Amino acid sequence: MPSLQPHEKLSKRMRAAIERRSNNGGAAVPFSLAIDATKVPQVLEASQGYKAIVGGEHPNHMIIIKDKTQDQVKLILDGKDPAIGKVTAASEVKVAIMSFQHSPPGISPTEVIAARPQGNNESNDFIKMMEVAAVSVSRTGRGRFVNFSVDGVSVESRHVWSALCEFLSCKANHTGTTDPNHNMKSWRHQLTAGGGCVGKTIGMYVIDIENYSMN
Q1: Which residues neighbour 70 within 8 Å (Cβ) at sequence distance 6 or greater?
Q2: pTM over 0.85
Q3: DSSP tag of 141
Q4: Of these four, 50, 96, 122, 187, which has the most CB atoms within 10 Å of its CB?
């Protein structure tokens, strides 16, 4: 049996997640996508369990080393393998989570569906790939894709703009949005949120945020 392509594997996972939350009444299952990255240690290592070198940026996130000698594995880790070249360690992993509006008792309303190791704030096609797969699943199954949400940094903005333009032009049934809580991590929020000077900074400087409290 031929192996499934990445987009086929993704669609299969999404359909399975939807089926686990379907009821016998045949009603549609609304879902959204939440996509963001989390930091990871920048380390390359040989995994005995997977028989692979893991920790690199996509597409070198899992380099199979089965049947390779110790010297061949060392060449890869040292970035001297002529076929692979230097493997850059990933600094973060971007994760896509399906979020369901209705889940049966005992079934989580969220499910991790895909992930990609990457460089810091890397701009790639991961979000678009998730969006396309969700639209495909929505058209052929019981799921109904409603929205995707990203953190709102500059590298993600184009995906949100594109989705909103498509929706407003009646070319799509879903929207794209930014996470309103993302600015909680920025100094702009610190200036207006209040709460004393604990953890409140602008660059290297600690500030007394009470002077700016908007009460």
Answers
A1: none
A2: no
A3: S
A4: 96
